Amino acid sequence: MLDLRSAFDRDGYAVIPGFKSPEEIAALRARAEAIVRDFDPSDGAAIFTTKDQAAKSDAYFLESGTGVRCFFEEDAFDADGRLRQPKELSINKIGHAMHDLDPVFDAFSHDARLQTIALALGLARPLVYQSMYIFKQPNIGGEVRWHQDAGFFDTDPSTVTTFWFALEDADRSNGCLWVEPGGHRSPLRQRFVVRDGRASMEELDATPWPGAGATPLEVKAGALVVFHGRLPHYSAPNRSAKSRHAYTLHAVDGDAAYSPLNWLQRDARMPARGFA
Ligand code: FE2
To answer: Rounded to the nearest whole angstrom, what is the distance from the C-alpha of residue 128 to the centroid of ligand 1?
Structure first.
């Protein structure tokens, strides 16, 4: 655990290979498939994009913080509004409260080892605010532009920590994560806020996003990547024939002040819980 902490402090991230078993991964994948199968696209699903976050952040998105909703890939539809690929191959992600609402996701997300890691990384009272199942579909898996997760989960002091689980092998061909080692010491550039029900991205700092200094995190299925909320990260579009499924959890320290402007709010009806 000391090694983990020192890597995390030095680089802003740490990789733990083989953290989840093939059986645990298979159970989560099967459950995600079932959620997509049951999803009726005529529900008015939002198309997820980081390119124009504010415009796309409609009620469907904002209400997903305490629900289980499917979001389409940006390139899922042709010019006539028809799906280019079957529905099962068109979903960008499921979000954002499966870890509290779905028993299979709950079991995957609540694990004494995760609590131990969170404590070792300095979260005194970890609270898991968000879960996302990311498909990174073959051919149309969308780019996720450079960002810092602390821009979506502002606390004072800054504490958000990301737990990223590879459910399939991820490499440069299918859109693995890219990070800027040490970039967690750079300032927070942007913050996604909701004021009076309107979502917007605020510019905080003009520090450029990483260029040549970025490193691809090629990992095998089962690996856990933990990273700091200010670590800049990115993933390229997936133009390969292979998907790149991943699952993420975002935890903050319950002892820090959680901004009332954050898009995802929890209250007494559905309080955020720890990992244990
Ligand atoms: Fe992120």
So the answer is: 15
